[in-house]
Amino acid sequence: MRIMGLDFGSKTVGVAVSDPLLLTAQGIEIIRRKEENKLRRTLARIEELIQEYEVELIVLGLPKNMNDTEGERVAATKEFAEKLERRTGLPVIFRDERLTTVAANRAMMESGIRRENRKEHVDRIAAVLILQGYLDYRKNTETGSQT
After folding, report:
1. CA 75 vs CA 8, 79, 124: distances in Å
2. For every one of its 147 residues, what pLDDT tens digit does the chain have, with 9 covering 90 and above?
3. Is domain 2-141 in CATH 3.40.190.10, yes or no?
4. What is the pTM of this model?
5. Which residues sit opposite 29 in a β-bridge?
6. Three-state secondary structure call for residue 30
């Protein structure tokens, strides 16, 4: 079993998948689209990746505002989740993604990636952070597990 993490944006979707043991998240790619509402190709590519990596669950970042309110992006993300569930038949769970983009930019800055090159990586890294946060949460909340 693998889990997919997605960072859904207005023109891009960052994609990450877990390893089979559900310990670590790896960035796979960034799916780009020309128009915000054009999702057919995006959904088709996600479906291909689900098949390729044998994904059984999708974790989707939920872009709440810093004051915990839900704005337009949350509504768009929830609509995208419904389309994903219908198309793939897989469950989609939400994970708070506040500050993941900030953390992704900080990680790239610390690793020496130039400012002009960060934009092409930030969504994939944000997807990794969303998924890794879920994997860590899942590991820490399992009951009866021995390590």
Report:
1. 12, 6, 21
2. 999 999 998 889 999 999 999 999 999 999 998 877 789 999 999 999 999 999 999 999 998 767 777 778 889 999 999 999 999 999 999 998 876 766 666 776 677 767 666 666 678 888 999 999 999 999 988 754 444
3. no
4. 0.85
5. 15
6. strand
